[in-house]
Amino acid sequence: TTAYDYLEDKIGRHNYQLATMALSKLALALAVAPSAALVAPSAKAASTKLAAGKLDEIPEAENRFTSRLATQEGFCLDLPGALAPMGQWDPAGFTSQASDNDIRRYREAETQHGRVAMLAVLGFLVAESWHPLFADVSGPAIDHLTQVRQEYPAFFEIGALVIGGLEVNRALVGWAFPDSREKAGVLNEDYYPGDVGFDPLGLKPTDPAEFAEMQTKELQNGRLAMLAAAGFLAQELVNHKPILETLKLLILLDDSEISKNLGINLPTGDIPTLELELETSAKDTFF
Q: Which burial class, exposed, middle or buried, applies to 185 when counting CB atoms under 10 A from its CB (0-12, 13-18, 19+)?
């Protein structure tokens, strides 16, 4: 009986060790499997080539994962505008399946909207402080058009005609004549998006590299201006105050918060009053 018990105990321990080793291998396999699924399909082939070849010859792996900042040849017809840190930015894939004409139209729209936005931002900041044309027009810029239409209705119609004329000229310069259904919305082959021939100061560079750099600067400033103009419009719709007044109130509020946290009393205004000024269209008492 003693020998039988001893043998049974040895067999039980051996089976326990085998089961433990099997569970350890299973756990290791489950831990490695998710990470192996993230490896590019070419990794196995590349390692096989490396093992069969020389150690100092590292083969080029196929289908490598590329960085978001890596440049793609032919992206957006190689038009200027891609700049670090965003790189070739097209998260929605608008240009992935677009035709050459569609891409050029996208760039035309982006350039023209950027130019209008830059003028709009400048108009917000200047006209709200001092209107160069109408001294009696005041308040937030979102109300200026209404005031001009009420006081000087002829100016509004003249401005509309001027803008319409500029748009007709752009259409004649850039777009092919739509003498057939297929040519509707087609740009001329020799038309560069945004180049309507308006350069009274002769700033357009003749060197292609300098021209690409200048257009990239224009696009970047236009993109920023579009965001700024949208922010200006939204902010003035909320509190109905000129942008510079809102900025001053925000600076005073921030200064008051810092003074409160530091435990000092500076003449920057009490926080509840500043918050009320920011949130309502009440008449400002600080300026």
A: exposed
User: How far apart are alpha carbons 253 and 259 in whole angstroms?
Assistant: 10
- What is the rounded CA–CA span in Å between residue 274 and residue 287? 12
Please name which of 216, 15, 208, 19 lies closest in space to residue 111, comparing C-alpha atoms.
216
Neighbour tally for 246: CB within 10 Å? 20
Q: How far apart are CA 236 and CA 246, in angstroms?
A: 9
Provide the CB-side half-sphere exposure for 217 (13 A, CA). Answer: 6
Band the pLDDT of 51: cuts 50, 70, 90: very low
| Residue 243, CA atoms < 13 Å, CB-side half-sphere | 20
CA gap 38, 40 in Å, rounded:
6
Express each pLDDT in 92-151 by its tens digit. Answer: 888 888 888 999 999 999 999 999 999 999 999 999 988 888 888 888 999 998 888 888
Residue 187, beta-bridge partner list: 175
List Cα–Cα distances, 264 to 253, 256, 269, in angstroms. 14, 9, 13
What distance in Å separates the CA atoms of residue 87 and residue 106, rounded to the nearest whole number?
A: 17
pLDDT in tens, 260-281: 776 666 555 566 666 666 666 6
